[in-house]
Amino acid sequence: MEHDGRTGEPDKRAFRRELLGVRNRLTADDVRVAGRALAERALELPELARGRTVAAYVSVGSEPGTPALMDALRARGVRVLLPALLPDNDLDWGEYAGPDSLARVRHGGKMALFEPSGPRLGPDAVTDADVVLLPGLAVDARGMRLGRGGGSYDRVLARLERAGARPRLVVLLYDTEVVARVPAEAHDRPVHAVVTPSGVRRFPQG
């Protein structure tokens, strides 16, 4: 998928619609199979082998599946942090203690999310992570990530920067979502690597 890389929100919105349209045509089996392959590829990352704390997220709908990866990390003894959406779109964090530790939460008219049901650790808990797994819709050859547009992970990345934290930033995508170029703005930060069902690609800063 090519894209001309012009900046600006209208352009981002059109590109997001295009990418979401492709995802929405995936079947539940497609998502499940891709999620298993994604977990296998991600677990080959040295960063995840060494990491003691990993900030992850629970995939929803047609997003590349994360449950298999979360369970595999936890089985390795990794502390897995999961986000909980706050009213201002910032993220709080809680610890993943297995599938039974998740609660389905609907935020207004938005899609229902699965969030940790245990104690909240505060938005700054993410600064303890060795690796932050990021959702997204696409990433380009520079490592620039296109998110869904809610701004939650922009806040996370800004918080990491303010704290002087330097976790490895890894985005989880389908193979077709690694593209030539995505629209980027001055505040956008590149990731270190992308994991897709077929493998891992690293970027210059990774």
Automatic annotation (TrEMBL):
Catalysed transformations (reactions): (6S)-5-formyl-5,6,7,8-tetrahydrofolate + ATP = (6R)-5,10-methenyltetrahydrofolate + ADP + phosphate
Which Gene3D superfamilies does the record associate with it? Answer: NagB/RpiA/CoA transferase-like
> Has UniProt tagged this entry with the keyword Ubl conjugation?
no
Q: What keywords appear on the UniProt entry?
A: ATP-binding, Ligase, Magnesium, Metal-binding, Nucleotide-binding
Q: What is its EC number?
A: 6.3.3.2
Keyword Ligase recorded = yes
Task: Tell me the superkingdom of the source.
Answer: Bacteria
Under the GO molecular function aspect, what terms does this record hold?
5-formyltetrahydrofolate cyclo-ligase activity
Q: What family does this chain come from, according to its entry?
A: Belongs to the 5-formyltetrahydrofolate cyclo-ligase family.
UniProt protein name: 5-formyltetrahydrofolate cyclo-ligase
Originating species? Streptomyces olivaceoviridis (Streptomyces corchorusii)
